Amino acid sequence: MCTALTLKTRNFYFGRTLDLDKSYSEEVVINPRKFCFYLRNGYTIKTHYAIIGTAYVKDNFPLYYDAVNEMGLCIAGLNFVNYAYYSKERESMINVAQFEFIPYLLSKCASVRQAEEELKNMNVTDTPFSADLPVADLHWIISDKEKSITVEYTREGVNIYDNHIGILTNNPPFDMQLFNLNNYINLTPEQPHNRFSENINLDLYSLGMGAIGLPGDCSSQSRFVRAAFNKLNSVTGEGETDGVNQFFHILGGVQFSRGCCKGVNDYEITVYTSCCDVEKGIYYYTTYENHMINAVKMHNVNLDDEELFRYPHIKSEQFNFQN
Amino acid sequence: MCTALTLKTRNFYFGRTLDLDKSYSEEVVINPRKFCFYLRNGYTIKTHYAIIGTAYVKDNFPLYYDAVNEMGLCIAGLNFVNYAYYSKERESMINVAQFEFIPYLLSKCASVRQAEEELKNMNVTDTPFSADLPVADLHWIISDKEKSITVEYTREGVNIYDNHIGILTNNPPFDMQLFNLNNYINLTPEQPHNRFSENINLDLYSLGMGAIGLPGDCSSQSRFVRAAFNKLNSVTGEGETDGVNQFFHILGGVQFSRGCCKGVNDYEITVYTSCCDVEKGIYYYTTYENHMINAVKMHNVNLDDEELFRYPHIKSEQFNFQN
Amino acid sequence: MCTALTLKTRNFYFGRTLDLDKSYSEEVVINPRKFCFYLRNGYTIKTHYAIIGTAYVKDNFPLYYDAVNEMGLCIAGLNFVNYAYYSKERESMINVAQFEFIPYLLSKCASVRQAEEELKNMNVTDTPFSADLPVADLHWIISDKEKSITVEYTREGVNIYDNHIGILTNNPPFDMQLFNLNNYINLTPEQPHNRFSENINLDLYSLGMGAIGLPGDCSSQSRFVRAAFNKLNSVTGEGETDGVNQFFHILGGVQFSRGCCKGVNDYEITVYTSCCDVEKGIYYYTTYENHMINAVKMHNVNLDDEELFRYPHIKSEQFNFQN
Amino acid sequence: MCTALTLKTRNFYFGRTLDLDKSYSEEVVINPRKFCFYLRNGYTIKTHYAIIGTAYVKDNFPLYYDAVNEMGLCIAGLNFVNYAYYSKERESMINVAQFEFIPYLLSKCASVRQAEEELKNMNVTDTPFSADLPVADLHWIISDKEKSITVEYTREGVNIYDNHIGILTNNPPFDMQLFNLNNYINLTPEQPHNRFSENINLDLYSLGMGAIGLPGDCSSQSRFVRAAFNKLNSVTGEGETDGVNQFFHILGGVQFSRGCCKGVNDYEITVYTSCCDVEKGIYYYTTYENHMINAVKMHNVNLDDEELFRYPHIKSEQFNFQN
To answer: For site-directed labelling of B4, which of A57, A251, C129, D153 has its Cα 20 to 30 A away?
Structure first.
């Protein structure tokens, strides 16, 4: 369960929530240009665009949840359980394991347009990372400051959607999520007037009544609608801090509070929330346990290095005592 | 527009959001025991319980939005527009101006029970603080770790409700807010089973579908329901930090993202969110512009002093750069 | 469970649904002017306005569910379980047993205004009709072509509400039902335009999307909203048949289909639906088992008679075979 | 705007509503076995299964809205605006004009299985009936007592869905309608218990609260859900009249009351509602203007005749006066 978001002010921001009932050892990982990617198809990518994002690092391989490269291309993978379907290897295509999807494309592509070209020859396979890490059912949002697309591999084939609202959650498939927005055509952030009937006086007893009907639960379709409403109506300043601040507010609207949603094993929480200032390569994030916004700067390390730079997520509340 | 909340773990927490389309100069204000309260009824309270809370200070008088005293009594005032009705002065009663309600009761009472006694002889008047500060339409939640009540002065008289869920928002009156919760009896944080019909297979395509129907807008009634669902199902650890963390998550579920709700002049935002650890007298808060949790400790000042201790709300994002 | 309705075209119509999980022996009963009402307070009403309505006749006493008198005054009693509270007899008032409420007022009053006067001196008692017919928990709508009121006796006393929308269902009390309509201020019978955001194109994929959010279940509050929407937006011709036809369509919108709502013993059904042309004294009705509209004309009997005229409800489908 | 429905008791019933803002001259039309169908592809069907249904007859051709043949095969065509897409003629296939879809299949097929076979070789063309009768955008439900399918021709090709719930309305495509039902998994016709939280007492203040969340508007998706809930939970006797009665009650739940939904030109109304006892060949219907159930019996005419038997819909209220 997750929500991905793009936001454009004078800057361009890309991020997501990760909602789970357990937490792995998430880290902000900077992948410098000369870190070798050993692909399962036998090839090795020796030099590539530098990448920053949150990953679970296993056997020195960054399993990215969401990441951005130095050219401004952004990808996040989100759960797509029961719909996602990956193939076996095919001879005529470039076989890319599902867990290589993000680093492969971010290594090679500088824009969504280039990624779209690359996808034409790609076959995403169901090769697991390892015996104890089975293949995750995912779909992806790929964005740059100009456009976003959603990529879904299903039993019926691949669907690549123009994602013009820059939002992705989970099930159902993206076209149905978009269609469902039509059902909220009556909602407005403005103070409404009486449309019920001119034969009765109704009372605007509260601000915000124009959005009555907006769903408040944490199911994937409801989060899609809520994120769309809050993003599409977002009002924010043009400063960098303004955008980061507002980004976390919009995603705050789709967070899981512990106890409100039972997962498979435990209650779902928003394990982390990220917001990358794409141009500057600054990766901001919060964790459920820590409201403060932490940040890692891609350009503060030597991007021509060969080893991963790793910054474990900070998972305890940092207070600022004023006295 | 606001939401007040209590939360009991091993500790007891009290706080609220303040949602407005503009911001005054909010400060955390510690009111030590010998700060003189000059009441409009002519009396002066020279010594009293020490108080901490957020206030707008005008002419050296702390106009508290929410506050807690050293005995553990807590009060927050929330908008109650068009319903609130305050009286003129009455001879046989203790006349307390509406803006004195919080400091008066917190000065004198150590518990909700004592406050209830005090309220019997109180007449809350519509005396404005000053010509440029007209009387606000408010109702109040008064809490200690044992119980909460809601106090509403209306044209029909005063209503004092047992507030056993420890939540208050705005209109309509509290009894109607409570009644409205009945309409959400079908909602559950658990994964639901099919109750629609045994003659059809339905698909749990997402976690969280048990709470479909939870309202997601920011009107006062919808925030009441959402806060109730998130609080009553809240799961949290027993540590002090756990409780503070969870408190801000629950109130995060009723925050206003800028743009989602048009107010009278501008878009409503959650100007600040507070959470007081009542026993320890630590007042935590965040502001819309700052996700970090700031804190002021009542017992870090000399509570026998005579002057206010003032800590202006911090209104800019504080980042923690990890590199 | 029931819904009462008034409708004004050039004519004035009054009627209701009766929703139960069982059926008594409902009959259309004309109560002529000289039928004696022996009241439990010892008085006997020997001559009175003639009355027509649906009743369960027990020991020659018409226990009316809804009725209209020859002067155009109309009353329907609807379930008000757990809220209704009737008193013991009081010396200084005219004691009227709960089951006498309708015939007493219709016997004496020619208008809502007269009924309001009468109510001032009335004490409605909890005297049961008989040992095997316990007191029903009811509230009432009293209407003439000029106005409607709702009368509710509760533990807190009697509340007489101006019922300017001419609708009554069941719980909660009438003022809360009216307040709840405010939550539907966004609904419209018109084709809506996009208010969600100008940053997205939404598709009006169906007619009727302006009313998305209208509740479709059969709980009393949802039926109130639905009846209000359908009545307040009703468009109908001015002919008598037009009005009757439309009246049954509006109440058709709040009918119970067998199986959709479990009652205490069995599934609730709309046992009957009535619509009285008040001026002409024609009482139209349908039953669950019979879609055809049956009718009884008050003025087709000798209204100066002394005995009840009884027309059992027709409870089997009457088909019109065209070949 | 329409809703089609199947219902199986001991008998099998098939019918629909037709919701429009205007009315053509609808008639029940019996098409005997030797009435010649002159197809636009040049062929003539000289003998065929007898058919009964509602049609608009133009130039002696029955433009069926819904119909049933003597073998028990049933088809209804419902609006599918903006989605429906019909082809030009194709050489290798049997070209059937869109308006010939119902009579063609009912002429030749005795079961859904046979219709499915026939559809494999059919090309549904956009040939209009005449210059003043442009092609309607339709999709179809095809049923017998064993199964139902939905057939949709779209720009992407033909989709034939197993329609196991026996309901069809309008947009969006059928698979999305089915998916949307998942969102109502919490609804129940039973009296619900409190699932909101064990930390609060909630009051079942009304019967029917288990279905709160059921949509009550007349958009096509909401009618689909409502019809599904009322049908799948339907409780009815086994007699023929019982089934007919209940069928009209279920479709009564998705009727349009005049004024509640603005169409293109005028307010939408449920022009007619039909229910065919498929085995007996009895076609029952009501019209907006007439609540009585009219009926035409297929087997009361000479089915070996060559000319249409036509029974114009009765469009005025037929009352049964009991005195």
So the answer is: A251
